[in-house]
Amino acid sequence: MWLNKLTTPKVLTGLNVAAALALLAGVALAVFYAPQERIMGDVQKLFYFHVPAAWVGFAGFLVAVVAGLAYLRTGQRAWDQLSVALIEVGLLFSLITVVTGSVWAYPAWGTWWTWDPRLTTYTIMILLYVAYLMLRQAIEDPDKRARFGAVYSLVAFISVPITFFAIRIWRTIHPAVIGTASETSQGGFDMTAPMVETFLLTNVAFVVIFVALVLNRARQEQLAEKVDHLKAQLAEA
Amino acid sequence: MSAAQHFIRTVWAVARKDLTTELRNRESLSAMLVFSLLVVLIFNFALALNRTAREDVAAGVLWTAFIFAGTLGLNRSLAAEKDRGSLDGLLLAPIDRSALYFGKALGNLLFMLAVEAIILPVFSVLYNINLLTPLMLAVVVLGTLGYAAVGTLLASMSVQTRARDILLPILLFPVAVPLLVAAVEASRAALLPTPAASFGTWLNLLIAYDIIYLAVAYMVFDYVVEE
Q1: Chain B, 158-197: which have a CB under 8 Å from a chain A CB?
Q2: Cβ contact (<8 Å) for A131 and B170?
């Protein structure tokens, strides 16, 4: 099956090495090469990790919807194995996003958290996918688990843009209530060339790391399924 | 008879089955009703509001009560099918699966509306606000419709899991956030002395949510009940 080709030990080892190197390179560039931002100082460098984690995680959730629909259409278990891997790693990246964002927010805005549309939607998104994992955990039959997972990941993902718009409209009616610094300022700053280079590198690095993690996790799912098969065979014998 | 007529008859048959069952012992309705009132009561003490603050939060408290009571109704409606094995019977019938979905959703919608029909006057008295205006009723109907639509789909899944009742709120509430925001804000806009201009925006969001989730549920319900 196609997933088998992507999760051979050779491919995975190569990806893992690439991911580790990419991470090292990203950290090195962010710490040493990128200049210190004038107003915010060193904490701004979290941006190089916060932004990639955010959009890569989100993209992962989107791909998971596609994978889920592919499972519903074809019934191939590989699609489901890929789905759960994408969502778990996506959830991890989302948590990284929120934590790095929060740490960045405190010096920048004077508060750890605000209820602006993006943050609120992101939090709800995290809760959605935690619910997805809880749903999966509550089902024993693998086929049912895969079907329900696919349905819920679709329902969940569709709600994300709707939630974002709803809260954005809500915000225009209930303007910011916390934070002394203007929380709408996303710490907008002009990026010099070294910053742009570092930013591009960490973005690519995070994609590589994401793919490596997802495929490792998918292989784990494949092995778990194999173990179940063997157990069933043993039980019959 | 045409396919569409057959479809509608099936939907109504499923809904009527639920209504008939419920009218016999009224367990679900009374539980939802009492629970809503208790939620309102708890909020009253939890928030300890003065008069102006109470008017501010009235819409929010109302919808919270509806949402919590709604999960009770949704759980019972689907769990009953599973426990009595009537779900299998329904699936064996030569009907379109999505007709089954719409029938269940319609039944859930009617239950919630019945409870709301009682809660709204009571709430009006308790909070000294007139909730029985046409705009407000439109919001209540549309909001409940969206909630019943998503809730029926997710409840169909959650009753088939080990966690059963507990899982439904976990699955449903995050998905229902935009619905809740729109319903509360539309209610607030509707309850102002001169309804705010934003009412139209929120109503549109409610309608959009309803249509989107009815369509999604229609498309995927087969996968949720296949054996």
Answers
A1: 158, 160-163, 167, 170-171, 173-175, 177-178, 181-182, 185
A2: yes
Kindly list the distances between the CA atom of residue A3 and the CA atoms of A91, B56, B69, B180, B227, in Å, as whole numbers in the listed order: 22, 55, 45, 40, 26
pLDDT, one tens digit per residue, over B169-185 is 999 999 999 999 999 99
CB contact under 8 A, A148 and B220: no
Which chain B residue lies closest to A151 (C-alpha atoms)?
B220
First to last CA, chain B: 30
Measure the CA–CA gap between A45 and B24, rounded to whole angstroms. 66
Give pLDDT tens digits for B102-112: 999 999 999 99
Q: CA of A29, closest CA in chain B: separation in Å? A: 38
Task: Decide if A130 contacts A91 (C-beta within 8 A).
Answer: yes
pLDDT per residue rounded down to tens, chain A (237 residues): 788 888 888 889 999 999 999 999 988 888 888 777 777 777 878 888 999 999 999 999 999 999 999 999 999 999 999 999 999 999 999 999 999 988 888 888 888 888 888 888 999 999 999 999 999 999 989 999 999 999 999 999 999 999 988 888 887 776 654 433 444 445 556 677 888 888 899 999 999 999 999 999 999 999 999 999 999 899 887
> What residues have CB less than 8 Å from B111, skipping those under 6 apart?
B18, B22, B28, B29, B32, B73, B77
Q: How many CA atoms lie within 13 A of B46 on its CB side?
A: 8
- What was the ipTM of the complex prediction? 0.90
Nearest C-alpha neighbor of A130 from the set B197, B170, B4, B123: B170
Note whether B119 and B36 are within 8 A (CB). yes
Question: Is the separation of the CB atoms in A135 and A129 below 8 Å?
Answer: no
Cβ–Cβ contact A177 with B under 8 A: no
Distance (Å, whole) CA B69 – CA B31: 8
Contact between A162 and B224 using a beta-carbon 8 Å cutoff? no
Q: Which of A210, A199, A211 is nearest to A93 (CA)?
A: A210
The answer, for A119 touching chain B at a CB cutoff of 8 Å, is: no
Q: Do B150 and A154 touch (CB under 8 A)?
A: no
Distance (Å, whole) CA B203 – CA B121: 22
Q: Is B57 on the interface with A (CB under 8 A)?
A: no
- Partner-chain contact B223 A150, CB within 8 Å: yes
| Encoded tokens for A73 | 């259409």
Q: Tell me the Ramachandran region of residue B26: left when phi exceeds 0, alpha when psi lies from -120 to 50, beta otherwise.
A: left
> Amino acid identity, residue B27?
E
